[in-house]
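Re: [ENG-882] Designed sequences occasionally contain unexpected residues at chain ends

Forwarding the minimal case from QA. Structure tokens:
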């Protein structure tokens, strides 16, 4: 008599619990070990407690910006209710939010890939994805700092799979209202000539960005945006503090650390990143023109993978959507062993397991291992894109002429 198998939900829950157990072993069951091992800071949810919360608390009361708060004013405005709770209560609310969003990011990514990729997957595929996703260093890094990157990644991944393109564009608009770089994903709507979706997304971005003006005045709001742009330019330029930081995973910054580049050689490495990004964007444009849900999903994944080629800084938590891209490419690879090997290398390089083996956050960041985990997926993703585009072209050429 055949024993009934466990339900998929039970398998996924067991995988998540197993990954949590591995975390307990990696960090010796101690938050202090976790905090001291993961990065140079020692505080719990340090970006939230030391930057976000003070910015929200002083949003209307003080004209001075909080050092390190390099986000759109809308983000501080929307966090004001948390500032009224007190530090301890706010930290617990934010911790629950971080855990919930991380779970939703993995869940939504897994759901979209399962629905959009036609080929059936083995029963162990999703539980393994959850297990490895919970161990993904970008998610852990985001949790450690109390960062907003998993929320942004969730909005981007949600937009990738939503059939309602207006709602998808609204997701990107919400993300761009918090931090500027998700606005790059409006390029995909432009490439797909989705003018209605583009109007909804840009309208959401503008409307949310203007909301704080009703509290602090639109002159103050304009000044805050101007100061933000100025500070970002100072910090992210080739001589800026953030560009030279060990954790910056941008291609040019990593090349500068490895090869000691400067001057024209550094500019050349930056131009190389832009050249590869343009190649990726060409594939994205063709995928968006193809129009299928799967092509759209891959276009979003491709654009996510090319961000560290040009975006500075590219902190480790910016790679929060990496498990989604890894799962999508595994499913698209089928029996292609080389593609599967590339994904396996990416998973290893971006795993907390390897990070703990190295046991030196500065060395892990300086080596650019998350950049490598990202770049190793690009050839596989581009090959998958070429297959989808070619299949669509063949089907179009074989269609009967009326």
């Amino acid at each position: 008599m055949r024993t009934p198998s466990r339900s998929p939900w039970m398998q996924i829950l067991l995988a998540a619990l197993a990954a949590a157990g591995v975390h307990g072993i990696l960090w010796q069951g101690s938050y202090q070990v976790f905090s001291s091992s993961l990065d140079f800071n020692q505080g719990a949810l340090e970006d939230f407690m030391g930057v976000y919360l003070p910015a929200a608390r002083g949003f209307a009361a003080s004209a001075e910006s909080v050092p390190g708060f390099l986000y759109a004013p809308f983000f501080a405005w929307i966090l004001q209710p948390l500032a009224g709770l007190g530090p301890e209560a706010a930290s617990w609310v934010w911790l629950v939010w971080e855990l919930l969003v991380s779970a939703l990011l993995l869940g939504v990514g897994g759901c979209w890939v399962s629905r959009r990729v036609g080929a059936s997957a083995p029963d162990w595929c999703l539980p393994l994805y959850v297990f490895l996703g919970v161990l993904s260093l970008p998610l852990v890094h985001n949790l450690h700092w109390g960062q907003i990157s998993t929320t942004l990644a969730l909005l981007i991944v949600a937009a990738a799979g939503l059939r309602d393109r207006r709602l998808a564009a609204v997701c990107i608009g919400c993300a761009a209202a918090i931090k500027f770089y998700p606005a790059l994903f409006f390029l995909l709507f432009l490439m797909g000539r989705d003018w209605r979706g583009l109007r909804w997304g840009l309208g959401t971005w503008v409307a949310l960005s203007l909301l704080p003006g009703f509290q602090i005045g639109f002159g103050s709001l304009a000044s805050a945006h101007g100061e933000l742009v100025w500070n970002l330019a100072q910090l992210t330029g080739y001589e800026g503090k953030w560009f030279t930081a060990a954790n910056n995973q941008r291609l040019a910054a990593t090349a500068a650390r490895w090869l000691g580049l400067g001057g024209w050689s550094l500019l050349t490495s930056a131009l190389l990143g832009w050249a590869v990004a343009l190649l990726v964007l060409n594939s994205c444009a063709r995928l968006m023109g193809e129009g299928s849900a799967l092509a759209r999903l891959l276009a979003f994944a491709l654009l996510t993978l090319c961000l560290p080629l040009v975006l500075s800084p590219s902190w480790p938590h910016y790679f929060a959507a990496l498990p989604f891209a890894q799962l999508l490419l595994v499913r698209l690879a089928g029996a292609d062993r080389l593609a599967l090997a590339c994904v396996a290398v990416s998973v290893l390089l971006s795993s907390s397991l390897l990070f703990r083996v190295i046991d030196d956050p500065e060395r892990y960041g300086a080596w650019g291992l998350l950049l490598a985990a990202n770049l190793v997926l690009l050839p596989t993703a581009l090959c998958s894109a070429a297959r989808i585009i070619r299949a669509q072209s063949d089907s179009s050429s074989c269609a009967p002429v009326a």
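QA comment: On inspection the terminal residues look reasonable. The chain is about 70% helix and 0% strand. Proposing we downgrade this to a documentation issue.
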